[in-house]
Specification:
Length: 333
Amino acid sequence: MYYNNEILSKSKDPKALYTTLSTLLGKSSDVVLPQIKDIDDVGLANEFSEFFSNKIFKIRNDISTITTSKGTGQDKYFSGRKLDHFKPFSEAEMLILLKESKPTWCLLDPFPTKILLQCADTLVPVITKVINSSLQSGIVPHPFKVAVIKPLIKKPSLDKNIFKNYRPVSNLPFLSKVLEKAVKKRLLEHLIENNLLHKFQSAYRQSHGTETALNRVLNDINLMVDEGNLGLLVLLDLSAAFDTIDHQILLDRLQTSFGLDGCVLSWFVSYLTGRRQFISVRNSYSTEVLLPCGVPQGSVLGPILFTLYTSELGSLINTHNDVNHTSMPMTHN
């Protein structure tokens, strides 16, 4: 009965549910890393850093220069009221954001997040001032733009000594994620008010997800069958989708298609540029590297920015998007 209640209580939190089930099934939580002869943890961290950087460089190098610099020309132009400044947050709003935040801790945080949240009522005036200062100046503090990357093996059954079997998982300072949550709130208010999210976009939207995407696809297939047509479903998986986002294309799209301007656009320029990361392997670290493209996978804004970046697909094909997967149903008489 205890375990049944544990599972039911976490049914709406996939991450917590996965952790509970892993514990019940006896799955090991030990860190899986390559075992390479004559290389210490610092060397391994730098090897991972070089591998992840080279992977992104190769993917971007394989993309046409025309595509990366100009897009496809299908962007819709925003004609409504532009979002050129952020509405400041009150202390009451900020306190809600803090209390809704998970107590995740990052290596770059000066003290445990749980302590900060326990003192939220006392610290909220200072935190509100810091967040509003960033929003009003259009500048993201440099310490907020550094990520700790931990290599995570994609599947336990994969060969742990092959680097391509690992994905980079970003860990960001807690206050940087609070800042991102504040920006996301104001950005979504603008997008929803102006009906700027594509109707077939299922990922990263309230009351949408894999279920709505699947229901739509199944409905289309059933309609094809009822009409006596043949159905063909093409599924596309984008490699390193978040990591290869072109900053200039994204910024151009935010301005032309979604009406971001002024201080708001300047904030996103600051957010995207000058980002750095380093790899953490146990208690050792690689050299920091500058990120010329992409958005952090562990960030709050990353998913919504990826959605806006790929919004052009909605003008090209009848799409059903979920995370970095795209489906294209086709009919034939």
